[in-house]
Amino acid sequence: MTVATELPVVCSSMEELWHASKSLCAYRDKSARAKISQILILAVTWAIWLARNHLIFRGTPVYEENIWESIENFVKAWVKIP
Predict the structure, then answer these.
(1) Which of 11, 36, 61, 78 could form a disulfide with 16 if both were Cys (CB 3.0 to 4.6 A apart)?
(2) Which residues have a Cβ under 8 Å from the Cβ of 31 and sit 6 or more positions away?
(3) Per-residue H/E/C for the chain
(4) pLDDT by residue, tens only, the chain of 82 residues
(5) What domain of life is recorded for the organism (predicted)?
């Protein structure tokens, strides 16, 4: 478990990540920690999903660096970080 999010450090599948996200969203904690955790889970899931779709439907190669950049951009946009 991480101290900041109280989520497993490693999710071994998208299913585990999805269940962690659902349980965190169901928990009605409005603290900054809970909000950040929710945003991170959603950003990671969305970035992986988009990369998967680009690979399958466009044949675009998937690079880890691009996924991390997408995650960073989503988080900045969703929490209004300049």
Answers:
(1) 11
(2) none
(3) CCCCCCCCCCCCCHHHHHHHHHHHHHCCCCCHHHHHHHHHHHHHHHHHHHHHHHHHHHCCCCCHHHHHHHHHHHHHHHCCCC
(4) 443 445 444 566 767 766 666 665 565 556 777 777 788 888 999 999 999 999 999 999 999 999 999 999 998 888 876 5
(5) Eukaryota
CA distances from 8 to 4, 19, 21, 62, 66 (A): 11, 11, 11, 25, 24
Minimal CA–CA distance to 46: which of 82, 77, 6?
A: 77
CB 41 within 8 A of CB 53: no
Residue type, 25: C
Go through the chain and tell me how many residues it has: 82
